[in-house]
Write a structure and sequence with these properties.
The chain has helices at 2-52, 59-66, 78-96, 100-122, 131-167, 187-195, 198-219, 231-254, 260-274. By secondary structure, the protein is an all-alpha fold. Helix 5 crosses helix 7 and helix 8 (231-254) packs antiparallel against helix 9 (260-274). The N and C termini lie far apart (143 Å).
Amino acid sequence: MLRLLALLCVVSASQALDLRVSSISARMGRREGFAAGMRRMRVQLEADRLLSTPRKTSPREVQRLRGGEGVPLAKPPTWHMVLMGVVCGSVLVLNEMKMLSVVMRVLLTLALSVVFLLLGVNKSPSGAIHKPMHDFYAGIFPDIANKVWKPTVEGVLNAVGGAVASVLPQVATKEGLFGEAKDGVFPLAKAVAASITPSNLMAAVGRVEVGCATLMLVSLAGMGSRGHRVPLAEAANAVLLVLMGAFVYSHRVLQDGLYIVPAALGTLLLLRMMLPPPSPKKGGKGGGG
């Protein structure tokens, strides 16, 4: 009987101890969860405070962004500000006088004429005035001639010859214009493609540029100096625009990255063509009506 009572006492004591341990564990778990929640809240509040607080840029960072050297917060050069002011003031004055398009057209004509005259002369096999530029063109024209325009011209002439021969079969005979085709290639297309050599192409392009630049420059001696359209100068502008388009196409096909300069020149040529000429002055006679 005493053993049974002792056993019951031990069991009840162990159960009480288990209940005590479980309650303590539950309270500790709740306490740790509360502490973790508080830590997360403090982190979130700190992040919100950093995001809402304006970031103060150090003087060194401002200096780096402005590109200044030496003195912190260096100002832009004075000559730069003066130049921009003169340009902007000139544009406003010319616009008020309705002469902006006239002045821009004349300046573009003069500048483009000089540029293309120099480019064309430097493509000449004997009259180059700047040997490094002449050597540069001599280095890129072999790829332009052999990899771009020779196969392009041959393919176009073969396509044209086939289309014409389907309507007029006599042009594709031995005595015809295109000659008798062999393996789909006409003798005329083959001969024309063979004539496109780097030296011939560079010299031809140089002569075209010199001729067109001369026509545009000469136009400034007459009505072109007052912004009027001169037919020969406009035709020369159109030819040079097509030529720059051909150069852009060539460099894009070759993927040599040299298309930027002809694209910029072509844009200026297009801008010159789009600028309106001065409006004709109203006559003083017979104005009443």
